[in-house]
């Protein structure tokens, strides 16, 4: 593998995305290093999810280039994208589990579609993944409608990890979880990232997870990355939106740790 | 892309050494599974096992699990694992903890007994269907009483909108279908009755059949397929997205807000549609009589006047609102039985249509017995 692929998992270069007259992402560039957890913050409706969905090829772009693990990304049916798709797992905000399959079948789905393996091994791998995300083998027989919010996220994470991807995209992984469950989920992401050597691209509003799990944080405002770096650097940023975000009333809990 | 993975097995007496080599990743799973299965019997026979992981180029959960499974084959001494690179130490450690308590395998059952049990349970569970039907009928009655006491609580806008959807918008297709049915019956009648010179009785047949039975039956079946399925799907998806729960928590009764206007609209629309449908069928029959049977319109109408009495018309029209009630109740109660998944929505919609058509036909049979016994 050449070095540029070795160093960066995702390279976004001069990206422009818009709908109609509205430009959402305006000449945005972003590099995600291999093996790091990058947190992306931004105003609601500011284009965080648009950026994530553009990187994975779900939204067409006007100009600019995207490379994921060295493969250029086009539309979802593009050859480069499909090659890259084998290397990423995606956790959608609402889980997006297939409602007519059990949790175990949901996890087995990507394996069954992409590989040829015996059903015994398929069951063992699914159970292994379930246990790795902190669920019991019995949970595997439940249907998505029978799972709690936290369990849904865990099953969705297990499905995202089914093929052992190099990169996982997480769209607001802790939204809708209570602080304890959110903390557990953060710890789980951190553990799995270490064990499996993952690169994690995480869109989140959860200040606690930004503080505890993210190696770097990127702030998206006005269609561009206005600040990027470790959390303590961002806290010192003097961009007005970043200041408002991290120094608002709700962010006061971060201050003692930062100083 | 990945080079072929290998598994070197060397045995010294009872001691076995395994050296996995190359890419032990999910992409190579077919090769890996064969390698692991081939090595398994030797591992089972061995007394001690050593695994040298230093040859691995890449390892993922699947590869790690296959190796872990091999190392568990040996009873007694745990396997000795050496040469683990730093990158994979965590993964190998993690995999050691998984799949420790396996689920009991599902019990194999006699297929005949399972089938018999399934039939028995289905029959027993049909009590529940009756209960659900009666419960819905009851809550509709309660809601209706509430509206009689306080007429302003009727959702008039909703009722008018539902009437528009199930009544007005259904008229074209009902006209077309019943017209064709009337024409076909008349054509068949002429074709067969002509053989024994009973042409003129075709008018009696078409008139009585359409007004008493077919008009209302065809329209009810059309409405069950067209509007009943829509009711089930609407209420079902509202149930799935917790909209019905939201309504109840606001202190509103879903039966009053959602179900009563729908059922009421059906009960009002179906007699009108039946009337329109019957007229279209007679019209179709008349046209065929004119062009195929050579019976002019004035003769057709005169014969119809003699053959058909108001009673026949009444019998058909009396049945219509009851059929509408059955369709509405079945459609709404099936909609409320939808569970969380997309599959259950589809299943419940199918059940709704099948059940309401079945009940409409059963009801028609009961009415036939009833009207015969009271001499109508």
Topology, element by element:
The complex is a heterodimer of chains A (259) and B (376).
Chain A lengths: L2 H5 E12 L2 E12 L3 E6 L5 H8 L7 E6 L2 E2 L6 H7 L2 E4 L11 H12 L4 H14 L16 H12 L6 E5 L7 H18 L2 E5 L3 H6 L3 E6 L2 E6 L1 H6 L3 H8 L7 H4 L1
Parallel strand pairs in A: 3-8, 3-9, 6-7, 7-8
Antiparallel strand pairs in A: 1-2, 1-4, 4-5, 9-10
Chain B lengths: L5 E7 L2 E10 L4 H17 L2 E5 L3 E4 L1 H12 L7 E3 L3 H12 L13 H39 L6 H11 L4 H23 L7 H40 L2 H7 L4 H38 L5 H11 L2 H27 L5 H32 L3
Parallel strand pairs in B: 2-3, 2-4, 3-5
Antiparallel strand pairs in B: 1-2
Provide a descriptive summary of the structure in words.
The complex is a heterodimer of chains A (259) and B (376). With 259 residues, chain A is an alpha/beta fold. Chain A has 2 domains: 3-87 and 165-258, P-loop containing nucleotide triphosphate hydrolases (Rossmann fold); 95-159, no CATH class. Chain A is 39% helix and 25% strand. Chain A has 11 helices and 10 strands. In chain A, the strands form 2 sheets. In chain A, strands 6-7-8-3-9-10 form a 6-stranded mixed sheet. Chain A has a 4-stranded antiparallel sheet with strand order 2-1-4-5. In chain A, helix 4 packs across helix 5 (119-132), helix 4 (103-114) runs parallel beside helix 6 (149-160) and helix 5 packs across helix 6 (149-160). Chain A is globular, with a radius of gyration of 18 Å. Chain A starts with a helix and ends with a helix. With 376 residues, chain B is α/β, with parallel strands linked by helices. Chain B folds into 2 domains: 6-97, Transcription Regulator spoIIAA (2-Layer Sandwich), CATH 3.30.750; 127-373, no CATH class. Chain B has helices at 29-45, 61-72, 86-97, 111-149, 156-166, 171-193, 201-240, 243-249, 254-291, 297-307, 310-336, 342-373, and strands at 6-12, 15-24, 48-52, 56-59, 80-82. In chain B, helix 4 (111-149) packs across helix 11 and helix 7 (201-240) packs antiparallel against helix 12. The termini of chain B are far apart. Classes of the chains: A alpha/beta (259), B alpha/beta (376). Chains A and B meet through helix 5 and helix 7 of A and helix 1, helix 2 and helix 3 of B.
């Amino acid at each position: 593998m050449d070095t540029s692929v070795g160093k960066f998992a995702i390279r976004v270069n001069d990206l422009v995305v818009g709908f109609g007259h509205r430009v959402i992402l305006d000449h945005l560039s972003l590099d995600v290093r291999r093996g790091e957890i990058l947190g992306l913050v931004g105003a609601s409706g500011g284009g965080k999810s648009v950026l994530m969905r553009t990187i994975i090829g779900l939204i067409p772009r006007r100009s600019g280039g995207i490379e994921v693990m060295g493969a250029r990304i086009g539309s979802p049916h593009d050859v480069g994208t499909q090659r890259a798709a084998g290397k990423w797992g995606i956790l959608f905000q609402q889980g997006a589990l297939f409602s007519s399959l059990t949790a175990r079948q949901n996890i087995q789905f990507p394996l069954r579609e992409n590989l040829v393996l015996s059903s015994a091994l398929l069951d063992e791998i699914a159970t292994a993944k379930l246990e790795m995300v902190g669920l019991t083998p019995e949970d595997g027989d439940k249907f998505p409608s029978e799972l709690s919010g936290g369990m849904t996220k865990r099953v969705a994470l297990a499905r995202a990890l089914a093929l052992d991807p190099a990169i996982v995209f997480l769209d607001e992984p802790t939204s809708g979880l209570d602080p304890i469950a959110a903390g557990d989920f953060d710890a789980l992401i951190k553990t799995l990232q270490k064990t499996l050597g993952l690169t994690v691209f995480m869109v989140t509003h959860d200040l606690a997870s930004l503080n505890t799990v993210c190696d770097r944080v990127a702030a998206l405002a006005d269609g561009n990355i206005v600040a990027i770096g470790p959390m303590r650097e961002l806290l010192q940023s003097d961009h007005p939106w970043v200041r408002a975000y991290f120094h608002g009333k709700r962010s006061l809990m971060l201050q003692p740790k930062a100083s | 892309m990945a080079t072929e993975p290998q598994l070197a097995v060397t045995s010294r007496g009872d001691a076995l050494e395994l050296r996995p080599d190359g890419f032990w990743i999910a992409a190579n799973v077919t090769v890996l599974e064969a390698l692991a299965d081939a090595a398994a019997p030797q591992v089972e026979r061995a007394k001690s096992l050593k695994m040298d992981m230093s040859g691995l180029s890449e390892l993922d959960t699947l590869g790690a699990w296959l190796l872990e499974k091999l190392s568990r084959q040996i009873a007694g001494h745990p396997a000795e694992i050496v040469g683990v690179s730093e990158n994979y130490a965590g993964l190998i450690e993690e995999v050691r903890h998984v799949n420790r308590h396996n689920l009991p395998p599902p019990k194999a059952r006699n297929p005949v007994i399972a089938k018999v049990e399934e039939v028995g349970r289905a029959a027993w569970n049909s009590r529940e269907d009756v209960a659900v039907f009666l419960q819905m009928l009851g809550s509709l009655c309660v809601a209706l009483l509430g509206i009689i006491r306080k007429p302003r609580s009727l959702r008039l806008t909703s009722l008018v909108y539902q009437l528009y959807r199930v009544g007005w918008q259904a008229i074209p297709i009902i006209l077309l279908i019943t017209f064709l049915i009337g024409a076909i019956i008349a054509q068949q009648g002429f074709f067969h009755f002509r053989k024994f010179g009973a042409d003129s009785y075709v008018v009696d047949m078409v008139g009585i059949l359409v007004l008493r039975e077919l008009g209302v039956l065809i329209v009810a079946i059309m409405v069950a397929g067209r509007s009943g399925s829509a009711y089930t799907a609407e209420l079902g998806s509202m149930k799935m997205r917790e909209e019905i729960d939201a309504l109840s928590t606001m202190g509103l009764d879903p039966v009053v807000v959602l179900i009563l206007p729908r059922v009421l609209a059906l009960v009002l629309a179906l007699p009108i549609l039946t009337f329109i449908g019957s007229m279209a069928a007679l019209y179709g029959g008349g046209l065929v009589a004119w062009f195929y049977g050579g019976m002019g319109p004035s003769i057709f109408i005169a014969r119809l006047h003699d053959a058909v009495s108001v009673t026949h018309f009444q019998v058909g029209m009396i049945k219509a609102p009851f059929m509408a009630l059955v369709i509405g109740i079945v459609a709404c109660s099936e909609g409320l039985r939808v569970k969380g998944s997309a599959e259950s929505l589809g299943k419940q919609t199918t059940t709704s249509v099948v059940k309401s058509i079945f009940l409409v036909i059963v009801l028609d049979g009961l009415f036939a017995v009833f009207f015969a016994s009271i001499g109508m």
